[in-house]
């Protein structure tokens, strides 16, 4: 009973703790072609838990949405490891967006040793992971979604996106079906991933089909992980932290507290009891 009350107190006062070594480090892995400033509101929200928030946008896919061949080591070697080496006792949380962030996380988890993995207390993932659909409609939506906002019009979709990308989508369909497209999520299902997991997505996502995300989530439930899935009925891919901000941030806050509870108790309160 004392422990439960103490953990609750630590959740309230987390932002005021002054422990340089063990306050959490939060990494945000952005979706393809976004800018770090795109996640400013999410960074501000996480700021109540820590000052150590690093936003990084990898480039795991090329301009045609084919895997770029990047194995993620720029982030791992130049961003992630230097930061966690500064705070070896700090819990790490990773917030991932789309397949771009998901593939980067796959390479990160594959590269970490067992001790480094234990430092990661949880991950939240938005709009992933899942299999890319072989349906041409999904590919054209992916291409149109990645265009600069000032060029994104219905006229350009029908006069530019559709004529240019129908042939490419027809090429991608057999390549995906034959396994030439890197579907990392099936391999990631076999990993022993962090215990605390939060999945955020839309049931009518036009880029990654919800059924594939759900399949991945169920595989983690079967593995005994602590999993929360929030699937909105509709919404634009990876835009829920703007369109459903209140609910989105509440879920993220609950996830952070769930991920850090044991760590906070051990660090800040155990010596006082």
UniProtKB/TrEMBL annotation:
SUPFAM superfamilies (UniProt xref): alpha/beta-Hydrolases (SSF53474)
Keywords: Membrane, Nucleus, Transmembrane, Transmembrane helix
Bilayer topology annotation: Single-pass membrane protein
Transmembrane segments: none
Subcellular location: Nucleus outer membrane
Family that this chain belongs to: Belongs to the TMEM53 family.
Keyword flag Membrane: yes
InterPro entries to which the protein is assigned, alphabetical: AB_hydrolase_fold (IPR029058), DUF829_TMEM53 (IPR008547)
Main location: nucleus
Protein name in the entry: Hydrolase_4 domain-containing protein
Pfam family, one: DUF829
Gene Ontology CC terms: nuclear outer membrane
Upper classification of the organism: Eukaryota, Metazoa, Ecdysozoa, Nematoda, Chromadorea
